[in-house]
Amino acid sequence: MTAKTAEQKRPSWHEYFLSITEHVAQRSTCTRRKVGAIIVRDKRIIATGYNGVPAGIRHCDMVGCLRDELQVPSGERHELCRGLHAEQNAIVQASTLGVSIEGASLYCTNMPCSICSKMLINAKIRTIYYVHGYPDPLADEMLAEAGIKVVKLAS
After folding, report:
1. DSSP state of 27
2. Which residue from 4, 56, 92, 142 lies 20 to 30 Å from 115 (Cα-Cα)?
């Protein structure tokens, strides 16, 4: 048996989960930003989510973006949107399947907003890994106060 070359090197766990998160984001129907999230415990994926409208509702790429129509800046007025965030959809998926996410980690293409952060705090997520920032200082403040470890990963 020969030693593995650099091309054959396995990805790290962070690289592996991040690549899956980015793949999940491709399912998004948001016209502004494609975001993916996965919830991981003990190196196993227990839920996934991407940003988009609730099941059975016409997608934003079909009816247009309410936030664009109202000229709502990113990071503000989260309630003015037809869609759910990727983190919210991952939490809902776990709940629908009856799977606790307490003590798990979240991998997300983007830093969670303050609404998602509040949900993640109450769901008892332990660590958040993300790649791209998000303009919501309240999220940073609450996650720090809750003692949730937040790690920015390189893409």
Report:
1. T
2. 56
Reported confidence tier of residue 8, pLDDT bands at 50, 70, 90: confident
Closest among 128, 126, 137, 134 to 108, alpha carbons compared? 128
Strands 36-41 and 105-110: antiparallel
Contact 103, 41 (CB under 8 A): yes
Chain mean position to CA 133: 12
Give the catalytic positions in this structure. 87
Q: Report residue 30 CA to chain centroid gap.
A: 14
Query: Tens of pLDDT along 79-129?
Result: 888 899 999 999 999 999 999 999 999 999 999 999 999 999 999 999 999
Q: What angle do CA 1, 42, 7 make, to 5 degrees?
A: 35
pLDDT of residue 136: 87
51, 87 Cβ separation under 8 angstroms: no
What's the rounded Cα separation, in Å, for the pair 6 and 91? 37
Cα(79)–Cα(119) distance, integer angstroms:
15
